[in-house]
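TOKENISE THE FOLD
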Amino acid sequence: MTLIKSISGIRGTIGGKTGENLTPVDAVKFAAAYGSWLKKQLQKENVKVIIGRDARISGEMIQNLVSSTLTGLGIDVIDLGLSTTPTVEIAVPLEKADGGIILTASHNPKQWNALKLLNNKGEFLSGNDGKEILKIAESEDFSFAEVDNLGNVTINDSYIDIHIDEVLNLDLVDAKKIKAAKFKVVVDGVNSTGGIAIPKLLKELGVEVVELYCDPTGHFPHNPEPLKEHLTDICELVVKEKAHLGIVVDPDVDRLAFISNDGEMFGEEYTLVACADYVLGKTKGNTVSNMSSSRALRDITEKHGGNYEASAVGEVNVVTLMKKNNAVIGGEGNGGIIYPESHYGRDSLVGVALFLTHLAEKGIFVKELRDSYPSYFMSKKKIELTPQLDVDAILKTMEEKYANENISTVDGVKIDFPENWVHLRKSNTEPIIRIYTEAKSQQEANGLADKFITEIGKIAGL
């Protein structure tokens, strides 16, 4: 069982011992640290925080603990109940709140949960703010409110509908064209809140919906990470139903994957590529993704006359670079779409609406759309090291060995070769090096990864 404290929040498995897992005590402690940090930063009365959760079995318990802790600090809470990560993110500025907490462990299995923390813009906290909250949690320097100054809880379960309205009002979302296309779509909501939000959005867009695992019980019917090996059921159902496509989201609805009309994966990496192709065709500008994302986004951006840049891995890093470079769209290769015209957060609802508008305008099948993009293949592997080994020194050696190539050390070591690339990063939580590669065939990508695993093994003496 596990408890991981990081600058972006706290996540862990439910049950077990305090400090080793995400127990009620740990949830209270971290919520108190976040609330105390907000009060210290703001130095004002009437602090307000938005809370929402995915459909995990532990969600209601954790939400009650977090909500009661914040009101115990004298903070007012707006409780969205069952929600999505992007829904909470848009609710924070709309409600003029001072922050937000999303209760979700994203793509992790059902025994996990987490507290993800937002600022008053509805964006993930900076690294420095996260570190400050961790310090407060460690010191347990909390001062709770007296009885006459306790916070209040307001229930507002309308925000998924508000979120959908916000999406429909985006200039580049054309509901009339989508309706005219008469799409039939299968949706896998992994029995979480995507099973509420995505079918509702599609029906507003005039799409015929076939629901698969859309009952928000929190009992995930398969591994909730939207990867090919977990999605056999929807791939088969798309073909059986003669649907135009399938839509898959993770439990908190910030990762989006499509299934082509032939039952094959469109490719998580290509979710962002397709949406960017559409947006850049309407709005000239730049794009950003993280260093472990496909080169295809660069190719599409340059085709439209824009500039592509890569950030360190992590949504907050992508958003920071997007703002710096005035990117009109960006995100992560795991199916995360960030569209600033809506908000600076990964949003599957926005991604679905942009993708369907693009498809309706093109008037082609999903497989044809995928075939129109540059074809790259990725390999994602890791090499386990003993805790005694100096991972930074190993990466430095690799950097020096390939000094004549196009290298970035913003986040580990990324080596861009003319025809392919490799990205080496150390894990923050275990003694491993993650090895991501991309090439023009799966065999080449796998071979490149194996080559670097062998080289690192020799350096490490393994």
In short: The longest helix spans residues 24-42. The longest strand covers residues 377-384.
